[in-house]
Amino acid sequence: MADDGKSGEINPGTNILPGATDSLTWNNSDVEKSLKDLRTYIEAETQKAIDWYWREKEPRKRMAQKIQLRALILTAAAGLAPVIVQILRPIIRYFYPGAFEFDSGPIATLLVGIAAAYIGLDRAFGYSSGWIRYVLTGTTLSKLLAEFRMDWVATDAKKGDDRPVALIARAKDFVAAVQSALLQETKDWAAEFQSNVAGMEKDIKAQLDALKAQVEKTTKERDDATRPAAIVLTVVNAEKTDNFRFEVCLEGGGGKVTETVQAAREWTRINVTPGQYKLTVTAAAHGSPVAASAILQVKPGETEQASITLNIA
Question: pTM for the complete prediction?
Fold first, then answer.
C-alpha cells in the first residue's frame, strides 16, 4: 500500500506516509511566510492522519458489529433451542405419534461452536480492537491538533524577537507528540498481533494434543476390548462319567466349537474373543446321557474360570 503523493489525500486502504518535505524551507528575508508554511504543512499532515483513522475505522466497525451480532444471535439461539424443542415436543407427539424424537443437544452445541468461531475470527483479525484503536488514535490526534492551534495563536500574539523560535519549538513538540501517538498505535497493533498469533498457536497445539490423546485412548480401548481371553472349565465329577470322558460345546463369538476331553477334569480354550458364551458339557454315566450348561461373560485379556457339576447319581 502506498500514498498517492498528494498532501491531505489518501486512497482508501493505504498507509499513512509523510508528504513532500521540500516545502519545509526557511527564508530569513520572509520569516512570516516561512512560519505560515511550517504551520500549514504540519496541520495538513496531521489532518491527513486524522482523516485516515476516522475513515479506516468504518470497515472495521461494520465488520466488528456484524460478527458480534451474529455471535449474539447464535448464542441466544443455542440457549433457546432446547426450550423450543421441549415446548413443541407434546404438540408434535399429538399430531404425529410416530414421529422420531428430536435431540436439540447437537444443534445447540453446533450453534455455540459457530458463535465461538465468529468471536475467534474477530479476535484473530482484530476488527473490534482495531476499531477501538483507530477511534482512540484519531481522537488523540484531533486533541493534539486543537491544542497546537491554540498554542500557536497564543504564542503568535506575543511580540518579540524570540517569537519565531518559540513557534518553531512548539511545532517541533507537536510533531513529536503526533509521531508518539502514531508509534503507540503501531506498538499496540504489533503487541495484539503477536499475542493473537501466540494464542492461536497455543490453541492449535492444545487441540492437536487433545486429538492425539483421544486417538490414543480410542485405540487403546479398541485394543483392550479385542484382547484375546481364555476359558478354563472344570468338570467337578468328570471321573464318574463312563470311560472318564465328556464333550464340551462352546457357542458364541459367531461360531461353535465342540471338543472331547478324555481322562481329565479340565478343559482349556485360549485366544477366545471377548463376549458372552454358552458352555455345554455332555457325557454318559452308567449308560445314560447327562448334561449341564452355563453362561459365561468373557472379559478382554482375562481368564474365565468355570465350574460345572454333572448330575450323576
Answer: 0.61
